């Protein structure tokens, strides 16, 4: 519509600021890997226990992934032998180590979900990081955004383990997403009656962590 002062601008609809996870809903992102059908997040779990709370946290990440984000758990870490340069050769590569590398190679980002064992990260997870760090400078983890979250019995929720995992990932060549920090403590009390999936705060924290991690992929794509 024209007036003697020029065209009348339509009123601008004001919406409340959206959270990152909401913004990611429905977005189809072209990622570093050249895929156009979403961001792929691979998850490594630091506990092999059948009834693991951290495994359940990882499953929450899968079940609550924002639209356009594909989250999948890499199984079989318990079958990956301890890293040795003697077997890390194309001819002798143990199959589970090759599968771990391939799964992480195919992902755009990595989420580590882990408890704390004796003040640091469990050996199974450290071993996985070691395999992903080689060949030196060209490992599957190289330049990949990596976030660390988890549940532990202690009051600090495994922050030593999580900080150590971040440091190790950084040395291994990964790009640690420092702003993502979810360390859920007091596991024995907090999950005595409820499982993590029943814990609304835990579900929200993990969902936000995945959205933020996926967002960091989009930023470097
Ligand atoms: C070998 C071992 C060492 C542990 N060390 C710690 C520790 O240093 N700090 C802590 O908060 N919890 C520690 N815990 C308790 C774990 O945080 C707790 O059992 C947790 O639920 C394990 O994770 P999961 O349920 O995913 O298996 C330890 C447990 C085990 C089995």
Structure overview:
Helix 2 (53-63) crosses helix 7. The protein is α/β, with parallel strands linked by helices and 221 residues long. Strands 4-3-5-6-7 form a 5-stranded parallel β-sheet, sandwiched between helices. The chain has a two-stranded antiparallel sheet with strand order 1-2. The protein has helices spanning 20-24, 53-63, 95-105, 123-132, 159-172, 187-190, 200-220; strands at 2-3, 6-7, 39-45, 69-73, 109-113, 145-151, 175-184. The protein has a single domain (30-220), classed as Rossmann fold (3-Layer(aba) Sandwich), CATH 3.40.50.360. Bound molecules: flavin mononucleotide.
The CATH topology is given as: Rossmann fold
Pattern of helices and strands: EEHEHEHEHEHEHH
Strand fraction equals 15-25%
Runs in which pLDDT lies below 50 for 5 or more consecutive residues are: 1-18, 21-36
Which oligomerization state do the chains in this entry correspond to?
single chain
Bound molecules: flavin mononucleotide
- How much helix, percentage-wise, in residues? 25-40%
Average pLDDT rating: 88
Radius of gyration: 20 Å
Number of domains: 1
Question: Total helix count?
Answer: 7
CATH secondary-structure class: Alpha Beta
Kindly name the structural category: alpha/beta
Strand tally, please?
A: 7
The major beta sheet can be summarized as: 5 strands, parallel
Question: Terminal Cα separation, in Å?
Answer: 42 Å
Looking at the overall shape, the CATH architecture is: 3-Layer(aba) Sandwich
Globular, elongated, flat, extended or rod-shaped: what is the shape? globular
The CATH homologous superfamily name equals: Flavodoxin domain
Strand order of the largest sheet: 4-3-5-6-7
